Amino acid sequence: EPLAIGVVYMKFFVDTADVAEIKDLAASGLLDGVTTNPSLIHKSGRQMLDVIKEICAIVPGPVSAETVATDHKTMLEEGRKLAKLAKNVAVKVPLTPDGLKTCKALAAEGTMVNVTLCFSAAQALLAAKAGASFISPFVGRLDDIGQDGMHLIEEIMTIYRQYPHFKTEVLVASVRHTMHVVQAAKLGAHVATVPPNVLRQLFKHTLTDNGLKAFLDDWAKTGQQNAKAAATMTPTKQRQWKFWTDWQAWLQAKGSSIKPHKALPQHWNTMALGRSGTRLEATVNSRESRIGMEVYIDHEHSKAMFKQ
Ligand code: G3P
């Protein structure tokens, strides 16, 4: 469900208007939405309407696009124009009396609204009453002036929990580091909007990198077959191998529990799996275990050689 407003789980939005970054992060499958603001649009160097439309086509979840008018009437017109760009646009309005009035009007029309520049629990309470889909408290900017940004999240979560009919999600914004994200999750915040570099840091741990390297080094020492080992095999070993010219017959001989993980063509000479020079490599999966199989093509004698 692309617009899963009100569903309680920790969502990750990316705080950028850089389309290349968004595409890259969306490929991780862990990106739930995007937030932009006038500063980020300026940084992108692109026309706002173009870039928002493009982002909305990449990410199915909410994409925040900010109004720049300060009076209710103009802000409402602007918000309606932004909302027309795509159904996953969330119109961003500032936490001012005109902003909240606009929030209420847009929410009544069924538009998602993200109320931004929130720095107090009282402001967050007003945004929920105005029907906002999201409230954006800026934790990093509070930290910057010596206040505790995460304490504000704690206060807002406490207030919102008292009123289960509030549909507003707490979108932790102005995130500076991974600990902000972890603390936000501990408090049960619904969303964190995170700069691309911080989003990537969430994946990282030195012990993961070191551990993986050690495992792979030890695996290589076992001499057991993998793609790397196969690549270093000498042609003399080919003598031991059986010759096959028909995939289907080979698979049938192995029993019906073995299913090719790709649709395999009947004749070897039309295969094109993992071709490297004159060598092809293929893998079939059985229910019990994974069977690795190397496939070599002997062009001279028009034959395929398989080794299980
Ligand atoms: O998009 C709003 C907010 O996340 C901005 O963050 O880093 O400019 O304080 P920042």
What's the story with the biggest beta sheet?
8 strands, parallel, barrel
Strand order of the largest sheet: 1-2-3-4-5-6-7-8
Strand content: 15-25%
SS summary, helix count? 13
| Poorly predicted ranges | 228-246, 255-294, 297-304
Shape: globular
Order of helices and strands: EHEHHEHEHEHEHHEHEHHHEHEEEE
Beta strand count: 13
Can you give the mean pLDDT?
A: 80
**What would you report as the Rg, rounded to the nearest angstrom?**
28 Å
Structural class: alpha/beta
* End-to-end distance: 43 Å
What small ligands are held by the chains?
Answer: SN-glycerol-3-phosphate
**What level of helicity do the residues show?**
25-40%
Write up this protein:
40% of the residues lie in helices and 21% in strands. The protein is of the alpha/beta class and 308 residues long. The chain is globular. The model is unreliable at 228-246, 255-294 and 297-304 (pLDDT under 50). Bound molecules: SN-glycerol-3-phosphate. The site of SN-glycerol-3-phosphate has 9 residues, from helix 7.
SSE layout and pairings?
Blueprint: E1 11-15, H1 19-26, E2 33-35, H2 38-44, H3 48-58, E3 63-66, H4 72-83, E4 89-94, H5 97-108, E5 112-118, H6 121-129, E6 134-137, H7 139-144, H8 149-162, E7 169-172, H9 178-186, E8 191-194, H10 196-201, H11 206-222, H12 227-231, E9 242-244, H13 247-253, E10 258-260, E11 279-286, E12 290-298, E13 303-307
Parallel strand pairs: 1-2, 1-8, 2-3, 3-4, 4-5, 5-6, 6-7, 7-8
Antiparallel strand pairs: 9-13, 10-11, 11-12, 12-13
Helix pairs in contact: 1-3, 4-5, 6-8
Bound molecules: SN-glycerol-3-phosphate (G3P).
